[in-house]
Design goal:
Elements (H helix, E strand, L loop, with lengths): L2 H14 L1 H20 L4 H13 L9 H4 L7 H8 L1 H11 L5 H8 L21 H16 L10 H9 L7 H14 L5
Helix pairs in contact: 1-2, 2-3, 2-8, 3-7, 7-8, 8-9, 9-10
The structure holds fe (ii) ion (2 copies).
């Protein structure tokens, strides 16, 4: 994978939808911080942040009416939205040199520990550790992203929502994210 490849693939996302681009950057940043805080280093940290940048590449194939719909998607719209993971897989298949680990992060970021996720409904032990981190950070970011139709949710509230999902997301990793976000930052308002 080259820097050009990342820029090119992310550029396709930015051309299609600025929100998805910003969301991808936020996911990559929070994944890097979470990874760093649990001692992931070197190439693995680069893999994690690259996986964050590329996790939603396939959204460049999802129509804006679904991608940016305010409020809840209908069942049919959700079926369309879920295909972004398969589109990401297609993009990887056409690209050279994107490491298997980066692909796994992107392809598993909507899987849940109890098997209720998509696209494959993988369970617990089948889930890659880095992808579990991506699942948590993706949900956290979606909740705290600013959208045209909603303000960003506060960090505390977003974390408490993730804490109410013990069957779906890895609570041990969540503790690390919580510690980092709620104890280490203390940034002025
Ligand atoms: Fe996604
Ligand atoms: Fe995402």
């Amino acid at each position: 994978m080259t820097d050009n490849q990342v820029t090119g693939l992310l550029g396709a996302v930015q051309d299609h939808d600025d929100y998805t681009y910003v969301h991808s950057l936020r996911v990559a940043i929070y994944l890097s911080l979470l990874g760093h805080s649990i001692g992931i280093k070197g190439d693995n940290l680069l893999t994690l942040s690259s996986g964050g940048l590329m996790h939603d590449l396939g959204k460049c194939k999802i129509p804006h009416t679904v991608l940016n719909k305010p409020g809840r998607l209908t069942d049919d719209e959700f079926v369309v939205m879920k295909t972004h993971v398969d589109h990401t897989g297609d993009i990887f298949d056409k690209s050279n040199d994107i490491s298997e680990s980066i692909q796994v992060i992107a392809l598993q970021h909507h899987e849940k520990i109890d098997g209720s996720g998509y696209p494959l409904g993988l369970k617990g032990g089948k889930l890659n550790e880095l992808a579990r981190m991506a699942t948590i950070v993706d949900i956290y970011s979606a909740l705290t992203d600013r959208r045209v139709y909603k303000p960003p949710m506060e960090a505390e509230k977003a974390i408490s929502i993730l804490e109410s999902m013990p069957n779906e997301v890895d609570q041990n990793l969540l503790l690390h994210l919580k510690a980092y976000l709620l104890e280490a930052t203390g940034l002025p308002e």
